[in-house]
Model the fold of this input.
Amino acid sequence: MQEKYNQSLTKVEKSETEADAAFYQGASFTYYDALDLLKSQLEAFGYEIEKFETIVPELGKPKK
Done:
């Protein structure tokens, strides 16, 4: 999912039309939201998320 998020960010930058950029930006928000939901679920089930790598990157920036 993180890879898809990163790919959508790249596609926003490379979009030739505003419509394409808007579509890929929407996809980025969707993947970001799903990652945030995953993080919330892990926390709700008692997992110590600090032991994992970054689950949710900073919005609009790829995971490093």
Notes: Residues 2-51 form one domain.
